[in-house]
């Protein structure tokens, strides 16, 4: 017979897996908003959402697996940096607040929007062997991060209005 703790861990693992699959699909293939030099995708929005919903280790696993698989399918050279960068993004957010939108998650959104472009810019320098590759990568990722931030704010507000987080914690994650 499983204990309550084992059931909760299994539920966290299942929800993490579902988010990882959704992150993979939206990052690699679905709902892209193109802009010159790149595109905004909903994968990072889902990373922010899972970071606000699940404990950090589960959210980090969902982010790393989902985004890593997306890059493995589309831009394999970026797979390893993405595994690290996307898993780090979840540390800026908290799942302990009763809503998705709270002071910590607003600050987390700003920090993620600075960290991600800077990290990808540094990785571009290493991957391409040129300091000149920093700014183009930084700029494209910054636009993507800002777009994802705006979409996250809209989605999180809508989700908070439905009290979905409280319902999930009450019925799914306990």
TrEMBL record:
PROSITE patterns in the cross-refs: PROKAR_LIPOPROTEIN
Keyword rRNA-binding listed: no
UniProt xrefs under InterPro entries: CHP04002, ECF_substrate-spec-like
Keywords: Membrane, Transmembrane, Transmembrane helix
Keyword Secreted in record: no
Transmembrane segment boundaries: 12-33, 45-69, 75-94, 106-128, 134-159
NCBIfam families: TIGR04002 family protein (TIGR04002)
Protein name in the entry: TIGR04002 family protein
Species of provenance: Pseudoflavonifractor hominis
């Amino acid at each position: 017979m499983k204990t309550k703790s084992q059931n909760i861990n299994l539920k966290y693992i299942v929800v993490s897996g579902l988010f990882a699959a959704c992150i993979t699909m939206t990052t690699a293939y679905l709902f892209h908003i193109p802009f010159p030099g790149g595109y905004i995708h909903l994968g990072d929005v889902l990373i922010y959402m899972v970071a606000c919903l699940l404990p950090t280790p589960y959210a980090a696993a969902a982010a790393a697996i989902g985004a890593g698989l997306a890059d493995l399918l589309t831009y394999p050279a970026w797979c390893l940096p993405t595994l690290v960068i996307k898993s780090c993004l979840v540390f800026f957010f908290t799942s302990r607040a009763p809503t998705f939108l709270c002071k910590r998650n607003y600050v987390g959104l700003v920090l993620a929007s600075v960290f991600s472009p800077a990290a990808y810019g540094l990785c571009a320098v290493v991957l391409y062997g040129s300091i000149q590759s920093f700014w183009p990568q930084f700029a494209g990722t910054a636009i993507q991060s800002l777009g994802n931030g705006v979409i996250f704010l809209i989605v999180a507000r809508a989700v908070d209005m439905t009290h979905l987080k409280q319902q999930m914690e009450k019925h799914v994650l306990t």
